[in-house]
Amino acid sequence: MKRILVLVVLCVLVNESSTFAQYFQHVQMPGSVEYSSVGGIAEDKDGRFWLLSGSEVRCYDGVSVRMYSDKIMDVTPQYTTYTHCLLTRSGDLYLASNNGMFIYEPERDNFKKVLPFYVRHIYEDASSRLWIAHGEVSCYNPESDECMPVMMGDKPVLGQVFTNVNCPYVFIVTDDGILQ
């Protein structure tokens, strides 16, 4: 009986390990990128990869890399650090930085600033609202272009936000606990 149990456990383990096998392909991008400074990577609906690395924004189309850092309006590249990127369900690409939040405008092939303050992380919820972590937590509605801080009484909530498009809840982790 013990032999059968051990055999079953081994079969399950072998099957489980093969189920989670990952295969990677090396993609050579011109120019070096310091992996420890990568703030985000996203693939847009056209198959391009957007890579944020420190003060640089790069777009890789499978053949070549284009730098966007010097093109982005309303920033001084050497003083900007990109911290996060988000590709929304509708296909919009947002960048978070210490100089604000930006949205990519394909018709201009450039980014436009939508929020003027430091943004650390951006998350999209099931209602397509964007939750912004910047010390305080705010909710940005792309349709109305309004950004409202999350308040507890008369004080803004300080913390980190967690949600995704498949989750009906928004969680905010604070020093006092978790808000839902």
Mean pLDDT: 77
Percent helix: 10-25%
Rg, alpha carbons: 21 Å
Unreliable spans: 1-18
Terminal Cα span:
48 Å
List its traits.
180 residues, four-stranded antiparallel β-sheet, mainly beta, disordered N terminus, single chain, 10% helix
Task: Give the topology.
Blueprint: H1 2-19, E1 38-43, E2 49-53, E3 56-60, E4 65-67, E5 82-87, E6 93-97, E7 100-105, E8 110-115, E9 121-124, E10 130-134, E11 136-141, E12 146-149, E13 151-152, E14 155-156, E15 160-162, E16 171-174, E17 177-179
Antiparallel strand pairs: 1-2, 2-3, 3-4, 5-6, 6-7, 7-8, 9-10, 10-11, 11-12, 13-14, 15-16, 16-17
Task: Describe the fold and architecture.
The structure is a single chain. The longest helix has 18 residues, at 2-19. It is built from one helix and 17 strands. Strand 9 and strand 10 form a beta hairpin. Helices cover 10% and strands 42% of the residues. It is globular and about 50 Å long. By secondary structure, the chain is mainly beta. The strands form five sheets. It has a four-stranded antiparallel β-sheet, with no helix packed on it. Strands 5-6-7-8 form a four-stranded antiparallel β-sheet, with no helix packed on it. The model is unreliable at 1-18 (pLDDT under 50).
In summary, what is this structure?
This protein has 180 residues and is mainly beta. It is 10% helix and 42% strand.
